[in-house]
Amino acid sequence: MQLPDVLWQDVDLAEAKSLRQAFGGFATGVAIVTCLDEQQQPVGLTINSFSSVSLDPALVLWSLVNHSPSRQVFESAEYFAINILGADQQDIGLNFAKPIADKFQHGMWNIEHAKAPVLEGCVVQFICKNEKQIEAGDHQIFLGKIEQCRHSNQRPLLFCKGQFNEWPQYKEVS
């Protein structure tokens, strides 16, 4: 079998744009992380820095750039939710990636009676207790202990090389 020609490009690790492009070669899911601020108002933003950590105890992590205006809100929140987006939720993901007001007018959100806002129609909803934060370079890593989890058979939204994509031949596995 003949492999296609691959054009390799060395990355200057001191050049942030080039390194960011290299990081972007890893396809990820897309999620919106949410919490409630001290006045019980919803706060949220789009992330692709989500990862599972442990099954026992059930732990996940995500990261946030240090200069984010939402950083202090997430640091002081007791809970946060990770809402993993479905393929049909690209517009919601784009809106939560922007510094706009009224983000929660996009999508159907369960905010009342929730520890953190959860999005209806997404692939997975995790409600997590904010366990620990770790400074790491220019980001803050948030470690959460999962208290509730729901998942669906929705097709996931993917992000790779600066673009949203769908999983081309996704099949639900039992």
UniProtKB/TrEMBL annotation:
Q: Has keyword Oxidoreductase?
A: yes
Give residue ranges for domain Flavin reductase like: 23-166
State the InterPro entries in the record: Flavin_Rdtase-like_dom (IPR002563), NADH-dep_flavin_reductase (IPR050268), Split_barrel_FMN-bd (IPR012349)
Q: Pfam families given for it?
A: Flavin_Reduct
Alphabetical keyword list: Oxidoreductase
Give yes or no: UniProt keyword DNA repair: no
- Give the protein family: Belongs to the non-flavoprotein flavin reductase family.
Give the PANTHER family listed for this entry.
Answer: FLAVIN REDUCTASE, FLAVIN-DEPENDENT MONOOXYGENASE, REDUCTASE SUBUNIT HSAB
What protein am I looking at?
Answer: Flavin reductase family protein
Q: Which organism does this sequence originate in?
A: Acinetobacter terrestris
